[in-house]
Amino acid sequence: MSEPPGTHAGPPGTHAGPGAPSGVAVHGSADAAAPGMEPVIGLEIHVQLSTATKMFCSCELSFGEPANTRTCPVCLGLPGSLPVANAHAIHLGLMIGLALGSELAPRSIFHRKNYFYPDLPKGYQISQYDEPLCRGGRLGDVRIHRVHLEEDAAKLIHVGASGRIHGSDASLVDFNRGGTPLAEIVTEPDLRSAEQAGEWLRLLRTTLRRLGVSDVNMEEGSLRCDANISLRPAGSEMLGVKTELKNMNSFRFIERGINAEVARQGKILAGGGKVVQETLHFDPSSGAITSLRSKEEAHDYRYFPEPDLLPVAISAEMLGEARAAMSELPADRQQRLQVEVGLAAESARLLAFRGELGDFFEAALAAGADPAPPAQALANWVTGELLARLPDGADPAESLLTPQALARLVGLLAARSISSGVARQVLEQLLAEGGEPEAIIERDGLAAIGGGDELAAVVAAAIAANADAAEKIRQGNAKASGPIVGFVMRETKGRADGAEVARLIEAQLRA
Amino acid sequence: MARLARLALAEEEIEPMARELSAVLDHVAKIAELDLDGVPPTSHVVEVTGALRPDVPRPSLPREVALAQAPASGQDGFLVPSPQA
Amino acid sequence: MHATDLIGLSATEAARALAAGSVSSAELFETYRARAQADRDAGEQGLNCFTWVADQQPPDAAPGALGGVPLAVKDLFCTEGVPSQAASRILEGYRPPYSATVVTRLREAGAPLLGKTNQDEFAMGSSNENSAFGAVRNPWDRERVPGGSSGGSAAAVAAGLAPWALGTDTGGSIRQPAALCGIVGLKPTYGAVSRYGMIAFASSLDQAGPLTRNVSDAALMLSHMIGRDPCDATSLQFPGAVSMPSAERLDGVRVGVPAELTGDGIEDGVRTAFEAALELARELGAQISEVSLPHAPHALSAYYVIAPAECSSNLARFDGVRYGARAQDPRDLLDMYTRTRHDGFGAEVKRRVMLGTYALSSGYYDAYYGRAQRVRTRIAQDFAEAFGKVDLILTPTSPTVAFPLGERTGDPLSMYLSDFCTIPMSLAGIPAISIPCGLSGGLPVGLQLAGPAFSESRMLESAHALERAIGFDGGGARV
Question: Domain range holding C314?
Fold first, then answer.
């Protein structure tokens, strides 16, 4: 779906002041279905924390271990077992709160959320209800409602006909994942389009990754996102009926799902109907939105304070440790890249908010290449030539190109040892096969032909072969040099340094 | 209420259960008489905080032990009738 | 030593004899084991105290400080590899892969597992008539209840089938059966003893405690039970140790008697015995005064909201998925859940699960659970205020002596009322002990002493002095 012309949610981090962005005319795709309506979107994100053990027991976290090999009486919900909260999970939760600028509750408690399901061994999930760890905060354009800690459910695998029991289809329960610590981050409904939601989610992911609190990998399930979506007349303060869209496990699916739901609601409202509050599932292959029947029964979770766990009081020591563990956040990094490294604002922002690009850039800058690449040139190559050649969303650190190699390449280019055309060629080779730029240049004979008689001779030949162009230049039309430069470039297979060629042409023709 | 508690009640059990529960509820409703303004609830008798666990792994149960008491198991896991899709 | 001499030894005396070498641990264990097994084999003719008896002395039992005094353990405690069924069909045959912390601590201290005792299902009851394995009978009168929920433990100790036993107390489940069986039962301060491995009924109220022949034995067992357990976040470090009591007088001890728990509702025979005990206390030098616990009359109501609420959640894990019983040929998942639980839980358990579900449900939380927790705060405040004026509070443990089997099973509310003297202490989380103080119509009457949190040592001293003065002889109940 193409972007509506002229409007864009704006780069994160550039909105001043509290509250939802107003006066930002983001129409999204709802415009097509229901004129004058704007989407109102909030996200509920579950993040698996990078602790060594589970939230309430000392089982090691499982990464694809054989089923039911990471369990104990506590996470199996055996009779008589009791939970004990993981101190490190609380620490990571505090770091998230600090990073989001949330208010950290001096005292927070766990609650039991009671319901029956085979992936819930105790028949309740230990979570937090009205006294969560963190309240409020903001990241970019979006205000945070709350952050709390809870335990993950186990995995239910449909076995179907091959494992029929009692004459009906069966499911297999694997409790390895059960009890994994989760941080649930809930935003205010400040998002106004699927694209903005996708962009913001990427920002959150970068932020959390830099914090080191989670792998935040959607494919592996360490980052999960549900969306709450409603429509309302543009500019209104009221909130419409919202639906919850679940089970989208990639950024693309989330954006498509939100767009599909916005369109669906828009159509209903445009036809004079009413949106029903329900939980929905987006099927990316068909684009269809369907109701999740398992939620049809209204859940009364009968929350009450978890009597087996004591309240968590944040001590000065815990706070100090969380602050000390904080690495630099994107906004701070952008600032630093601009002020200390001297990058242009747009480069700094891009490198700061796409953390893996920033990491690659800074590693290249620190590589000690000689001749040293100028910082801005290096930045331009990372965000320009390199980014264009990487698959969407890929991390340059995972390619065959090393930061050192890029630094040397850009350094060589800046020193005019190679032409920009050659540099692009070499970059492609480095991405394809790795290695060192100097070796490739040497091997393929790509060194720039700079000064010296060799180039002068080629220029002379080019001038001789393009008498008309030469004449025009003599008469003051410097722009006519195209054919001459082209000749030189063909002859030198692109290795001639462009500036040097121009100087030689000038010199030879003025002479 | 029985469904929330996942308790099937036989036809003949419903009436006596309802009667017994009513009697108890009438009695416990006495607490409605009290003036409890401003009284905080006791969610934890022990007014202490903390008691957190260090993030150090300990051995998990061997799978056979975890599955040993399962009413139905197979393919290395606990088998249950599938929830309705 | 002859078997009857052996079983005549209290746990403290047996430990001493074992240490002195005048008794062998093997002989002691086998003597009790045989008696326990005989009760089990006697079926209807026996007292039905045990759900499981060891078939031999544990082979690698380390002597520990106690030297091998066999311990009967309520079925509610997880004992590794040994049936731990909470006297419920839903856990019939369940053998846990781990043991409760207190069981492990006592075993390592030299109290090996003799057998598992019968109880009210999931600790819900005051008469031990709610067991899936049949009622327990009172050794003083077979047609009467031993009390509950730790009825099996109490009857076993009273009948000399075990030197001592472990029980659990949520609203009086150690103290009340101790009173009805003429033995000592102690509920520690909430948090003093680990709950890890104790099948949960009401998490904020449950505590493990000793049922013993005398106060010294209770102190001895308690001293090996207390201490913070990293597996139980609500367990606390006990300040100091539990000392072995030796007091013979109560000089300077200020005793409070709450009108709310010693007036209406106490039957005459019990009241007479109670007042005699108060008179004895006075003679021993105690200063007796009246105290007020204004919210005590509401304790029962608050308890019968809080306990069922917590239990409805704690029992949700019994769903037929991972252990225990599962209904045959379930049509689907819902059918599996509902039939498993219907068939597996007894009537009292079902009642409390329903009550608890209701009390927590949307729209009712504030009126029931929310309010009950506030009443609880008031009750704790009442005690705190009272303990500003007195050191100990004395009440009868149970309003009646042991009642006949079947008398109250048709009226759950009347059954609940038997806990009204013990429940307030549970809600406040303070320690309390019941000691026999006399007979009424040939049946034992219990005297309850309660003290502020962590005052067990002082409370045991006073109990010891009173016990000595009372001179109750429980030998007649021995089988």
Answer: 297-373
